[in-house]
Amino acid sequence: MVELTPIESMILEAMNELGAVSDEKKKTADDIAKKCNRPKSMVTNALVTMSQKGAIKRVVREKASGYYVIK
After folding, report:
1. Whole-number Å distance between alpha carbons of 69 and 18
2. What are the pLDDT digits (tens) for 3-29?
3. Residue range of the domain that includes 51
4. Which of 4, 11, 58, 66 is deepest in the core (most CB within 10 A)?
5. CB–CB of 46/7 below 8 Å?
6. Is residue 35 part of a domain?
7. Which helix H or strand E contains 44, and what residues bound it?
């Protein structure tokens, strides 16, 4: 497992609770920010870093990107 900061760990836990564990069940940064009760900008920055680390997958879509946990 990759090294995650405390905020990244919180986001990963929230994503698992939301069920964002596959491409069909991906969630937006808005969904994740609401679950974590953190500012969307903070969550978005952490999501980008987490995708670079290989902990989550980012799927670019027309309106908003979707994210899900890589097992």
Report:
1. 11
2. 999 999 999 999 999 999 999 999 999
3. 6-69
4. 11
5. yes
6. yes
7. helix 40-53
The pTM score is 0.91
Structural domain total, the chain: 1
User: How many Å apart are CA 62 and CA 13, to the nearest integer?
Assistant: 26
* 67 phi and psi angles, rounded to 5 deg: -135, 145
DSSP strand E in the chain: where? Answer: 56-59, 66-69
Q: Which residues contact 71 (CB under 8 A, 6 or more apart)?
A: 21
Rounded to the nearest angstrom, the gap between the alpha carbon of residue 53 and the centroid of all alpha carbons in its chain is: 12
- Reported residue count of the chain is 71
Distance of CA 45 to the CA centre of its chain: 10
Instruction: Tell me if 1 is assigned to some domain.
Output: no
Domain harbouring 37, CATH code: 1.10.10.10
